Amino acid sequence: MSAPERNVDATPSFLYRACAIVVRAMAVAWFRFRAVGVHHVPRRGSVILASNHVSFADPPLVGCALPRKIHFLARKSLFDQRGLGWLIRRLNAVPVDREGGGGAGLKAILDRLSAGEGILLFPEGTRSPDGQLRAARAGIGLAVIKSDAPVIPVRVVGAFEAWGRHHVLPRPRRVTVLYGEPMRFTDLREEARTCGKERLKAIYQEVADRLMEAIGRLEDPPR
To answer: Which domain CATH number covers 195?
Structure first.
């Protein structure tokens, strides 16, 4: 399990806040953006946001509505780009190999959580090719079981139509981010402490599957 959580200040930096304000203003103007259920996300302490992944804009859209800072994963190669690398470092990006795989990626995630930070993860691992929910990979289950953080299911609705992987530029489509109630996985975390390796692997996938089911149940309420 994770190390004891440190009590850190989750208040965003000036640059983070400024970028969040700009992103949200642009999203409201272009996407008629709104966020529902923000109150489910704790303002302090470790938390995992587990979101579906349908567009280029998912990380900033999920993060811009929250009053606290959120860390997110980014490919190592992006940090080598002048300007962009400087910016994403200061916006709490975590460098990982492609799709966040490997021990280094897991360690980076658990380090942030043990420090009392929030981190955004995508259970599907990559952007959906058609906007539909895909099966979750077991990797997020591993991160959840090895931490004590609550998990917030998140669903981004409309972003595929607005800026999916087949669109070079964003289009003016309505986008909503839905934040669900915290999930604790107390039963599976307890079982994982003593079970064998085969059952442990099954637990990781069960966590991932439960998360995707919770994400799938989130619905955009009428405006």
So the answer is: 3.40.1130.10
